[in-house]
Amino acid sequence: MTGALRGRRPTAAPATAGEVFALIRQGAVATRTEIGRATGLSRTAVAARVDRLLAEGLVSEVQGGAVTGGRPAARLAFHAGGGTVLAASVGVSRTSLAVCDLTGAVLAQDSLRIRARSGPEPVMRAVADRLGGLLAEAGADRAGVRGIGLSIPGTVDSTAGCSIGVPVLPGWAEVKLPPLLHEHFAVPVRVDNDVNVMAIAEQHAHPGIDDLLVLKVSTGIGAAVVSGGVLQRGARGSAGEIGHTQVANGPGMPCHCGNVDCIEILASGSALIRDLVVRGRAVDTVSDVVDLVRAGDAEAVTLVREAGRRIGEVLAAAVNLLNPAVITVGGDLVGAYEPLVAGIRESVFKRAVATATQSLRVEPGALVGRSGVTGCAILVLDRVLSPGAVDEILAARDVVL
What we know:
Layout: H1 2-6, H2 17-26, H3 32-39, H4 43-56, E1 59-66, E2 72-78, E3 84-90, E4 95-100, E5 106-112, H5 120-137, E6 145-152, E7 156-157, E8 162-163, H6 178-182, E9 189-193, H7 194-205, E10 212-217, E11 221-227, E12 230-232, H8 263-267, H9 269-278, H10 286-294, H11 298-322, E13 326-330, H12 337-351, H13 354-357, E14 361-364, H14 371-384, H15 387-400
Helix pairs in contact: 2-4, 2-15, 3-4, 7-14, 11-12
């Protein structure tokens, strides 16, 4: 953005208010004079654009240090408190919710124990109701909400904002989710896969790391790929769907996707719950499994480590193919991190080529417990604070005035 504006030809259209905002948000400029130099706009044009951004609350202005030989220059900065975005990371059995400022920082957070099998309408209604309550708890005005970021498990058509027939989400296929939230909040809604939004958050938390593999182990298993600094969604949005990769030498267990011996049916949180119940343990959720591991239950520890080994078998192929610098592990089962990752490392470092694992780091996600909602917030912020979106907001304000 900055380079494009600085290299602007004299015949190019003048920089818009949205483009000026992008420069301020990036920290590329901090004064009106710097804006003029970067864009070629006149002082009058700069003032007009800055005044509109100030009135919209997207930019703040304070007196800065003295300019050499002159009076103190007013400094401009991105105003993180100029509104909020809402984040909802829907899981199979639990949904994380948050109100965030315009940097993606969480202002208020909660979770709902609601099963996705209830269907999209009741889930979205419960999500909207609780988000309204969180806004009040954060002391934020509904009128200041600028957008909603939403994630759901499995393959997502991010353009249409719907699931593409995921077995763990019966009744969700092709149901467009933004309209269900528009009934409660008249703001833009962006929808993506749950692990993709975790990857967006982890990418922001790992500056300088351009090749990242994000693993989520919860009720199900999924992954996301950041390669060359870009989140890879694939031709139909199903990049990273490792949960339904079949493993060798399995017991022939049928998976809900129609295949047998998928990694998800053998090593996910749901699989561990099933196997522990068979062994007489009173477990109902992934959190119960984690509690057993933390209490030192030998059988639970053994099962979790074996699950890690099986997951590592699949990840080894991904490491050979993608050569990530870092694998981050998140999801509800990360609470049993030590046996889980011990198993993952054992298989990955045994099966992947040495050149791919020589400097590979396997570590817990940097935002464990918040990566989903933080990623949802960043997802929608990238849309609603883009230069084009800001210009549309300001144009709409002009029409109202």
